[in-house]
Structure formats: structure tokens, C-alpha cells
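Batch manifest, entry 17 of 40.
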Amino acid sequence: MNNNLKIFIFIVIALIALYFTKGKYGQFSKDKSINACVIAQKKQYKDKPIEEIKVFCEEEITKNIK
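Output type: C-alpha cells
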């Protein structure tokens, strides 16, 4: 019984930790995806301004996440 309680408490604590880190690292992942998109788009379309590319990438990444 005591051993099962320790495992249960560990699992609950791990789930809580994962829940709180989801927000922090989710935004980090989104930013990395946007940066990768901007780099790829800039290589493909050399004449487009970087601001226009960044807006396009932010819209596409946000649309694909939802």
C-alpha cells in the first residue's frame, strides 16, 4: 500500500510539473518555428521585405497550431 502511494504521488507531481512547463516551452517552440519559416522564406524570396515575411510566417504558424 505504501509503495503504491509513493508512485501515485510521483505521478501527480510529474503531471503538475508538465502542465506548468507546457506554457513556457510551447511559446519557445512557436518562436523557433517562426524563425525557421522566416529564414526559409527569405532564402526563397530575396526581394520581399523581412517584415512582410515575418507577418506571413506568424499567421501560417498560428493557423497550423490551432
